[in-house]
């Protein structure tokens, strides 16, 4: 299959309102178990709230706005993104209020507020720079899954380097914009979730410790950032520098982090290298490995 077609399919599947559907389904499923018992009514409530306010409403406005402006579904022009982002902020915040008032689940309530705040940050950045909404949209629910499942949740971040390749290959973002969207999303989600749970005194237990979450994020973003830096700097022997940096990362995570974090680092690094080798010759990461 043509690589550009693969990139388009990856980009379509990981459009924030679309990728939210399977990831929030998993989140809702996990939250619906109490003392080992699955509560169907709670699952239905969680799924409805998350589906309506993180997917249906944002997608509807994206489709409407794209048709009105006669542009693509990504709304590639930075200036045209303000209205959909504002609508997203409002939609997530209404979802937060609905979840808060209904008391359905405090974790989902905090996550919806987190979504609203993160989208606000994206809006501010977008006024100056076209940061990737796709990678931000992926990192939010993956960050939530890390909080709930630790290494199993972090495995979903394998999509991160694949998505970076997709967005850059389609010329929707620069390498820096694609990488930065994920970095911002991962860190803000973890920090804000713990902050909101504390400020609102939410009854949420069993979360992965904050320090471990930060370790997982570092393991996820390390190799893409190394690739990204080497993509921009003009030095010789980039492949050797990359190999040395990866060995340093391997030793660092093996010695200082939990072993599960080390395994996530390996998984993301291998995925990043494989997607680089799969990419076309003009893809920056491919050039790093062949210089």
Task: Explain what the structure shows.
The structure is a single chain. The chain has 291 residues and is mainly alpha-helical. The chain contains 13 helices and two strands; from the N terminus they run H-H-E-E-H-H-H-H-H-H-H-H-H-H-H. Strands 1-2 form a two-stranded antiparallel sheet. Helix 5 (106-126) packs across helix 9, helix 8 crosses helix 9 (175-199) and helix 9 packs antiparallel against helix 10 (210-232). The longest helix is centred in the first third of the chain and has 30 residues, at 40-69. It is globular and about 60 Å long. The model has no long low-confidence stretch (mean pLDDT 91).
The low-confidence parts are none
> Percent range for helical residues?
over 70%
The total strand number stands at 2
Distance between the termini: 27 Å
Q: Give me the strand/helix succession.
A: HHEEHHHHHHHHHHH
Alpha-beta classification = mainly alpha
Number of helices, where a helix is a run of at least 4 consecutive DSSP H or I residues:
13
* Percentage of residues in strands: under 5%
Radius of gyration: 19 Å
- Look at the structure and give the mean pLDDT: 91
Shape descriptor reads globular
For the largest beta sheet, what order do the strands appear in spatially? 1-2
Tell me the major beta sheet.
2 strands, antiparallel
Element layout with pairings:
Elements: H1 3-13, H2 16-31, E1 33-34, E2 37-38, H3 40-69, H4 82-102, H5 106-126, H6 133-149, H7 151-154, H8 159-169, H9 175-199, H10 210-232, H11 238-256, H12 259-278, H13 284-289
Antiparallel strand pairs: 1-2
Helix pairs in contact: 1-8, 2-3, 2-6, 3-4, 4-5, 5-6, 5-9, 6-8, 6-9, 8-9, 8-12, 9-10, 10-11, 10-12, 11-12
């Amino acid at each position: 299959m043509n690589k550009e077609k693969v990139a388009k399919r990856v980009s379509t599947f990981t459009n924030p309102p679309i990728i939210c559907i399977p990831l929030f389904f998993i989140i809702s499923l996990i939250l619906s178990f109490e003392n080992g018992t699955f509560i169907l009514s709670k699952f239905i409530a969680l799924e409805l709230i998350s589906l309506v306010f993180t997917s249906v409403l944002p997608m509807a406005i994206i489709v409407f706005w794209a048709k009105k402006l006669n542009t693509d579904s990504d709304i590639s022009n930075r200036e045209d993104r303000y209205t959909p982002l504002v609508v997203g902020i409002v939609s997530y915040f209404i979802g937060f209020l609905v979840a808060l008032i209904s008391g359905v689940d405090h974790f989902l309530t905090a996550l919806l507020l987190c979504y609203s705040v993160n989208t606000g940050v994206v809006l501010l950045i977008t006024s100056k720079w076209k940061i990737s909404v796709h990678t931000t949209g992926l990192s939010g629910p993956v960050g939530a899954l890390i909080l709930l499942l630790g290494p199993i949740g972090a495995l979903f971040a394998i999509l991160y380097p694949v998505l970076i390749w997709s967005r850059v290959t389609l010329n929707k973002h620069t390498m820096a914009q694609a990488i930065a969207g994920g970095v911002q999303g991962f860190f803000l989600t973890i920090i804000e979730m713990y902050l909101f749970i504390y400020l609102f005194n939410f009854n949420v237990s069993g979360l992965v410790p904050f320090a471990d979450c930060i370790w997982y994020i570092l393991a996820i973003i390390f190799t893409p950032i190394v690739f990204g830096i080497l993509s921009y700097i003009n030095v010789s022997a980039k492949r050797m520098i990359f190999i040395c940096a990866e060995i340093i990362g391997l030793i660092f995570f093996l010695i200082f982090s939990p072993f599960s974090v080390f395994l996530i680092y390996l998984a993301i690094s291998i995925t990043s290298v494989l997607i680089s080798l799969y990419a076309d010759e003009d893809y920056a990461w491919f050039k790093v490995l062949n210089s």
